[in-house]
Specification:
- This protein is α+β, with helices and mostly antiparallel strands.
- The protein has two domains: 39 residues, no CATH class; 31 residues.
- It is 29% helix and 9% strand.
- Strands 1-2 form a two-stranded parallel ribbon.
- Strand 1, helix 1 and strand 2 form a beta-alpha-beta unit.
- The longest helix is centred in the first third of the chain and has 13 residues.
- It is flat, with a radius of gyration of 17 Å.
- It starts with a strand and ends in a 24-residue tail after the last helix.
Length: 91
């Protein structure tokens, strides 16, 4: 099995650990950036389950995803993005 592994610059330490674990289990790790530790914050990832939705829903979700605009208004000072469901909560 091929397992794609990616993350932002803060995840670079775990990136190699996860890749090693995948490979030690007999699978191939596909290492997707970053490779140099330079900041690459807020990369967009879309994961769709082929057994839980049909093609029309998948196409609609993909269009919504690629047309979405990132906003820093819901990002905390420590860099965590929080949805409106978290507003007012002390976490």
């Amino acid at each position: 099995m091929i397992v794609a592994i990616a993350g932002d610059h803060a995840g670079l330490v775990l990136w190699q650990v996860v890749a090693d674990a995948v490979e030690s289990a007999g699978h191939q790790a596909l290492r997707l950036g970053p490779h140099d530790g330079k900041p690459v914050d807020y990369c967009k990832v879309l994961t769709l389950g082929g057994r839980v939705m049909g093609p029309a829903i998948a196409a609609d979700m993909t269009r919504a995803f690629v047309n979405a605009q990132f906003s820093r208004s819901n990002v905390t000072p420590d860099g965590w993005a929080r949805s409106s469901a978290w507003k007012g909560r002390d976490v």
